[in-house]
Amino acid sequence: MKLVGVGHGSMYGLGGSRINFTPTTGVALTLSGVGSVVQDLAVEHAAWQTSRATAGAGIRLAAATHCALDRVMVIGFWNNVECLEGEYYTITDCKILEFAHYGLLLAHDSSNDHGDQAIYGNHIGKFRDTTPGGTAVYWRSGGGVRFQNNKINAFGQTGEPNTARLAKGIHLDIADFTSTSVFPIVGNSIENFTEHGILISGNAGNIDKVTITANELASFVAGSVGIETAQSSFIYSFNCSANTINDVGTAIRLKRVREGAVIGNSGTSVYDYGIRCGEAVIKMDFGRNKWPSETTYPWFFDNSGYPPLSDNTFETTLFINSTVTPIDLFEIGFTQYGRGFVEVEITGGVDSLGANAYLFKRLIEANANGQDPGQVTIGTDVASGGNMTAAIVTAGQANPTCVLRITRSGGTNINLTVKVRAYGQGLKHVKQLVAG
Q: Which residue segments constitute the domains of the chain, with CATH numbers given?
């Protein structure tokens, strides 16, 4: 079956080919034929602003195999689009707006590891909807999904200052006894969520080969999380790289992932943790992640019980107006008996007293409870300038730490660029101690 209109027109009944639906339950358009195609039309719950849907869907692909939705606008249903019992379907260049529950519901419970679905180039979210909540994309079973180049957004749209926020952007909620793989989530923009930008959860199901790369996420809600894995089973081959995560509580929060990498992510206005590792984060590489000058929470925190393969480089510019000396810039924490390396580069100066530069590397040796950590100089320290010194100071018996400390001989204003590279299986956290 092929259903083609002349275009979906503008929003809310303005022009184009349209299917209008008014009941608060039920399905406006059901596709049950393999290979069905819908193009260039709108499906709208005509009364959504006064009588919200409480069940049903705008478009239901009851046998979604090889189906395609192209340039379709769906507005105002409980679930705007449901893809059930099918595989190899595509949803491209659609507008999925004003849903009460899910924008896209993706599930194939009877065949949980088959097919390769594609969700490309869609706009999913709220434009005029003043009711908060809802999830843009909810996946629970079926084969892997390529989710690329989509825009998820809500809140404060142009000309619509009362638009509410979404609860979640993308939620992979693994159904029990589901086992599938291959989820490239690449190049999307996900904004204005109150809970999660990308969440992976579930109890007795399993997914592997998850790649989250080059996405932009922004919440503007202090308690939110950019990317979180909260499932009960392991995700093997979990890779999270080159994402820009702004204005969230915690940027990346991990649980039960292994054999992957978290590399090259960055953001501004991260209110809590940059990266927080919980239970069983195993054989993961961390490196070159950059977070803002937040002094309350660490940029990196590991509480997984398994030493990560960490290679974290933290770089910041500091302007300090103070006569206090010494000043502690960074704190690096280690596990009991942990071993790790700390490399430091500092360039800058104090007032008109002159420029300074330091380059040095230390092996930090955390010992048994009751003993302060030790440090070993690696190579030869390099120092230039005489009005400031920099050093690593170790302390802490039950919670081994080392501190990057500067001391100056005079002046007030300090302007520095500081780069700290901390790595090794004993690394637990890295925290900036003074605001930039």
A: 2-314 (2.160.20.10), 315-436 (2.60.40)
Bridge partners, residue 315, by sequence: 419
Name 297's Cβ contacts closer than 8 Å, sequence gap at least 6.
Answer: 271, 272, 273, 274, 431
Return the bridge partners of 418, or none.
Answer: 316, 346
Give yes or no for a contact between 58 and 38, defined as CB atoms under 8 angstroms apart. no
**303-331 pLDDT, tens per residue?**
776 655 556 778 788 888 877 889 999 99
CA atoms within 13 A on the CB side of 286: 34
Q: Which two tokens stand for residue 141?
A: 């079973």
d(CA 261, CA 267): 18
d(CA 317, CA 335): 28
| The most confident of 141-145, 193-197, 202-206, by mean pLDDT | 193-197
User: Across the chain, which distance is largest between two alpha carbons, in Å?
Assistant: 81
- Judge whether 112 and 177 are in contact, CB under 8 Å: yes
d(CA 186, CA 241): 10
Residue recorded with tokens 């700290």: 420
Please give the pLDDT value at position 72. Answer: 98
The tokens 């999904």 sit on which residue? 145
Contact 74, 105 (CB under 8 A): no
Q: pLDDT for 2-21, tens place per residue?
A: 999 999 988 766 788 999 99
Decide if 225 contacts 196 (C-beta within 8 A): yes
pTM given for the model: 0.89
Contact (Cβ atoms closer than 8 angstroms) between residue 308 and residue 428: no
- Looking at residue 414, the DSSP 8-state letter turns out to be E
28 - beta bridge partners? none
> What's the DSSP call for residue 75?
E
- The model's pLDDT over 15-50, given as tens digits with 9 standing for 90+, comes to 889 999 999 999 999 998 899 999 999 999 988 988
